[in-house]
Amino acid sequence: MAGVRVRELRKEFPGGDPPVVAIEDISFTVDGQEFVSVVGPSGCGKSTLLNILSGIDTATRGQVDITQNGRPARLGYVFQSARLLPWRSVLDNLLFVQPARGPADRERCRRYLDMVRLGHTAGQYPGQLSGGMQQRVGIARAFSIEPDLLLMDEPFSHLDAITARSLRRELHDLWQETRKTVLFVTHDVSEAVELSTRILMLAPGGRLVADLPVRLPFPRDPAADEVALARADLLRRFESLDLLAG
Ligand SMILES: Nc1ncnc2c1ncn2[C@@H]1O[C@H](COP(=O)(O)OP(=O)(O)OP(=O)(O)O)[C@@H](O)[C@H]1O
Ligand SMILES: [Mg+2]
């Protein structure tokens, strides 16, 4: 379980006049086994935030600390598309990101492939798998390095509704089994309500406009009254953001 501290974080992209402000001075902290969704309309800075947290991009200003018991935390990243190496087998895609590649590492990679029910594809190549299966390999790969913090950027948005639903369940089970801290970007309000213990809402211009705990027991049935109510509340907030954006 990781601790995330973000202080007065700002990201500007130069080039325009004035420069694009992708993240406007946001602060938040996440502690322990939380599943935090980051929601907001397209272009409000969700991917930029994840990229800065992961170190893929740098902030213009502000501070990010991601620690695990006082030392720097280990991060896993699941991208919007699986980004597998097509010339390596499924198992080798997982092995490739391991710090070491001994028998124990191979065994661990196999275990995470089994957890997403793809153990039988270990020797196949990504091109032989469907998009949903590739995305599951991407999820297994992120879990296989046993990260303290898992960053996920709209991992199911390219998938059909049925596949997305079963992957959501799988992800949720993995999260409960492994007790990771998860930061999960989505623009799908139902997905956020179904999965999260907490929801951060970004508005256009990269402003953090809401930090909402979701205190409903798991598993959450999307058809249950209290889940529907939470979804309606979030949707209302979401729609008012679009009005603000104009
Ligand atoms: N490399 C870049 N150079 C210039 N501007 C950028 C760059 N990356 C992102 N931006 C701008 O920063 C803002 C935030 O982009 P970002 O990709 O973080 O949004 P997002 O919330 O992830 O959107 P989406 O839901 O469509 O993925 C946008 O205005 C975008 O045009
Ligand atoms: Mg994005």
From TrEMBL:
Keywords: ATP-binding, Nucleotide-binding, Transport. The lineage of its organism: Bacteria, Bacillati, Actinomycetota, Actinomycetes, Micromonosporales. GO terms for molecular function: ATP binding; ATP hydrolysis activity. It comes from Mangrovihabitans endophyticus. CDD domains: ABC_NrtD_SsuB_transporters. This is Nitrate/sulfonate/bicarbonate ABC transporter ATP-binding protein. PANTHER family: ALIPHATIC SULFONATES IMPORT ATP-BINDING PROTEIN SSUB, TAURINE IMPORT ATP-BINDING PROTEIN-RELATED. Residues 4-229 form the ABC transporter domain. Pfam families: ABC_tran (PF00005). Transmembrane segments: none annotated. SMART domains: AAA (SM00382). It comes from the Bacteria.
